[in-house]
UniProtKB/TrEMBL annotation:
<dbReference type="InterPro" id="IPR032675">
    <property type="entry name" value="LRR_dom_sf"/>
</dbReference>
<dbReference type="InterPro" id="IPR036047">
    <property type="entry name" value="F-box-like_dom_sf"/>
</dbReference>
<protein>
    <submittedName>
        <fullName>Uncharacterized protein</fullName>
    </submittedName>
</protein>
Amino acid sequence: MASNNNKLPAEILSYIFLLARSEILPFSNRKVPWTVGCVCRFWRNVALSEPRLWASIRVDFCPWSEAEAENIHQMLSNSLERSSGRPLYIHMHQSYGSTGPSALPIYLALTRSIESWYSLRLSGCVSQTAFGAVDHVPSKGTILSSLRELHLDFQNYRGDTSFKDHPIVRILFQGRRHTPGLHTISFSAIEHIYLSNECLRSLGWRQLEELRVDNRTLHAEPRVLALLKECANLEVLSIPLRLSLARLPPSYNKLRMAYLRSLKLRMRACTIADVSICSYLVLPALEWLDVEFVRIEAGHMFDSIIGMVERSQCSLKHLSVESLALMDASVERLIRLAPKCTSLSLQGCVFSHLFNVITCDDTFLPRLQHLGIRSSATNIRAPLGVVLSAIRARSSTLQSVELELCTESEDFESRDELAMFGRLGITMYVQEYSPEPHRYELDLFRTLGNLAHSWSKYGSLAAVDSTGQRIMTENAKTLHEALELVDHLKMNHHVSLEEVQSAMLGTVREIRGFNTTSNSLFVEYLEAEYHFKERMEGMTYLETFNDVSSPVIIYGDLSPLALLSRLSKIPPS
């Protein structure tokens, strides 16, 4: 940094310093201005001349010594002075244990600048003994006139309401007139407290534009809908749901959120299928939909989301589906409801069928500008050539593509084609990964198990229109591709009969059942195209093994014919 030629322009360096305040860094962002100021005189001058850098303040309250408290108080006063009246981003973290009287001057210094608070984050422990002398901080009549963002991230034992004893929280609970400009709230952990009647009456939900719930589980109970009903002007909603609304009658009134543009759902497994808060929402302005599935194996969970989109008659422009173990026909159904979609991101087991539809059907995603495909989480993926055919078909509209490629892929010709798309003006983001040992085999068994579970419990993979025929036709292609995966799988390690049975037996049994019943979902034209009966021939022995822990080991090729050939030589017990 001694030479002027090696110096970045002050404007760029200042911008880098501002980015360094991010919470994702491994060191505390409150030390950024102090740290960069120690590098050289030039950096120090840049840091001192950027008030926004000093406007992000974090204080970790804990049992301090008097010397530590005095040092923190001086640093805080210095930061407040150098922020030069800029909007303040305040983060107060409360550690376990009483802070004692030494914290009072620091709290008072913070509250003297309360009219400049733009963003407030409160985190940490909220036990009754944690506040100590700061309980004397005045709150009555205080107005946070500049506050726009509130983030509550307390941790405590379930049922503890002592977070309301926090001196700053007391201000918030005095009513919405004390936070006239608040438009963003996020919270986590003790959601049953935040959704209490007192909280609904006190906080200014109706003025909110953005609500983010980051806790691990949030049950979709009536009070959640009551909260959303209060948020009449909400534009952005991020909420995790455990798909269970058993306490709500089917006739529960639909909730229309006229201004909601962005919805992110983190959906967990449930005991009641096809029921979620989505069943009660009408979102006519929705443009951005992100859905993440956590430990949900079957695509039937999509039904309530599809119903919400159909009912809302919205114009989706961005669609993201993450961590869905099996991308069956439900995903295609959802995409077809978004003809104006310009951005599509998929993470999980995506079969070739979806890309073939993009290639062959001009009405499917005709305005696509960004395509993101991530499959490393499953190691089961469509061939790269099929994906590139879809990209080629949308090259006139695509602007960017994000792909994950397996380092062990042998599709070198398709890899060479990636450079061609760059010359066409499409920005390509390519990330390579190495599959974990045994991961491919385990993912295949899991996928087949998902097929079996969906088939046996719901009659089809993606129920259902009035006849079931169209959906079954689409999912027949999904099953066909799953069986092709088995055909081409080469096992490098032992696979027990128990694993094979658990993965395939349910699917095989259900296919037989559908082929023999009068209301067969596998009608003759499907059988003529896919030959499911023929491909399942000889699997009788799979059903005759009583000892599922039999030490039979399968080596080498695991194609259905090779597998059945081996098993058929073993007499049933």
